[in-house]
């Protein structure tokens, strides 16, 4: 990107850079989920904010540099972006099939509300998470505090997956303060059922590895319930290896279950 965007618009630019759809309709809420921050008041009050394409404004480069322009705005409801056909300078045709748009990024404090809701959804859909349905008490304030504290720590973070403007998955990386354990981190991955089978978990793991390497972390570890075969296959395919079994470490519906320890060394 030739124009230096404000930091908060970079995720929006990343989102559009990976898009090929002839048109993209996003609600204001979805745009803010992509950004991880609130839009300015002007975006809610004035259609002209979205139509600007000249300096000193810069925010429009988030979509214009990816070949999109704003064709319609309903304040506080949605924005319609259309892709320019570079061959003739007009809006591209609508006969192309829409493709999923996936954005993977680290969480910002503005993601707290959506992340808290996502965790609740994931835990209600899975039989193998540590917390059962409605068991965790997770407030927006608590999640926001966690995001901020982890970012400040430098060894822990939360990576989120945004599919078509919606938060659908997360991966937590929990590092260590102790110098003797600073090279390792524990990970915890959650993904909504309707977003599974799209390669999102694999993308989250790849992002986690890249982030960990930047922080000097070279060992990632986790525990997975022995009967959770899809998760085991996912991690094993990603290069994680079993290091042992924790016997009867989880009680699910009153029945004991073993957990398998898995770990991967990052080269």
TrEMBL record:
Superkingdom per UniProt: Bacteria
Record-linked SUPFAM superfamilies: Acyl-CoA N-acyltransferases (Nat)
InterPro entries, per the entry: Acyl_CoA_acyltransferase (IPR016181), DUF7662 (IPR056079), GNAT_dom (IPR000182)
Residue span, N-acetyltransferase domain: 102-267
Listed Pfam families: Acetyltransf_1 (PF00583), DUF7662 (PF24698)
PROSITE patterns tied to this protein: GNAT
Protein name from the UniProt record: GNAT family N-acetyltransferase
Organism of origin: Planococcus antarcticus DSM 14505
């Amino acid at each position: 990107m030739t124009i230096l965007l404000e930091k908060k618009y970079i995720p929006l630019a990343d989102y559009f850079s990976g898009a090929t759809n002839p048109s993209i309709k996003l609600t204001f809420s979805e745009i803010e989920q992509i950004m991880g921050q609130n839009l300015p008041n002007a975006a809610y009050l004035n259609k002209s904010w979205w139509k600007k394409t000249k300096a000193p404004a810069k925010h429009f480069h988030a979509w214009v540099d990816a070949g999109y322009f704003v064709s319609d705005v309903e304040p506080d409801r949605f924005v319609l972006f259309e892709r320019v056909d570079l061959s003739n300078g007009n809006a591209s045709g609508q006969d192309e099939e829409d493709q999923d748009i996936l954005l993977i990024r680290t969480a910002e404090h503005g993601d707290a509300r959506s992340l808290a809701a996502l965790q609740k959804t994931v835990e209600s859909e899975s039989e193998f998470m540590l917390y059962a349905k409605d068991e965790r008490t997770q407030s927006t304030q608590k999640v926001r505090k966690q995001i901020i504290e982890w970012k400040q720590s430098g060894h822990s973070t939360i990576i989120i997956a945004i599919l078509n403007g919606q938060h659908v998955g997360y991966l937590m990386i929990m590092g260590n303060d102790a110098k003797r354990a600073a090279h390792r981190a524990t990970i915890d991955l959650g993904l909504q059922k309707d977003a599974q089978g799209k390669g999102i978990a694999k993308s989250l793991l790849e992002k986690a590895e890249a982030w960990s390497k930047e922080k000097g972390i070279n060992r990632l570890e986790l525990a997975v319930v022995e009967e959770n075969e899809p998760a085991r296959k996912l991690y094993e395919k990603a290069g994680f290896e079993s290091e042992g079994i924790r016997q009867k470490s989880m009680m699910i519906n009153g029945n004991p279950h073993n957990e398998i320890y898995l770990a991967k060394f990052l080269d």
